[in-house]
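Entry 12.
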Amino acid sequence: MPWYGNFLGPGPDGNPYNLRGYDGKILKPIDAMDAAAQRHDYAYYLAKTGGVKGALFDDRVAAADWALAAEAYNITLLFAENKRDPLTHQPISAAEEV
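Predicted 3D structure (C-alpha cells):
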C-alpha cells in the first residue's frame, strides 16, 4: 500500500497534525489505518528524521515502525471478522485492509 489516505506513503516531513490540504484545511485521517500512519509520521517528525534513511538507519523510530505494523495487522484481523473501522464506524474496505 504505497499511498493511501492522507498519511500513508511518502510525504512531507512536517508535523502531520499541522499539515494542510489544497483547500487550506488541516488534514485528518480518513480511517483507522490512516490514523495509524499519522501517529507513525509524528514519531518520525519528533525524531527529526524521515525517508528511507530514517526508516533503515535511525533506531529512534523503530518503535513507531513496529506500532504501525501491529496496527495494520489488527486492522486486517478486524476486516477478516467483518468488524467496523474504529475511527469511521464504517465497514473496513479492502484497500484499508491490504
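Annotation: Residues 62-80 form the longest helix (19 residues). The radius of gyration is 14 Å.
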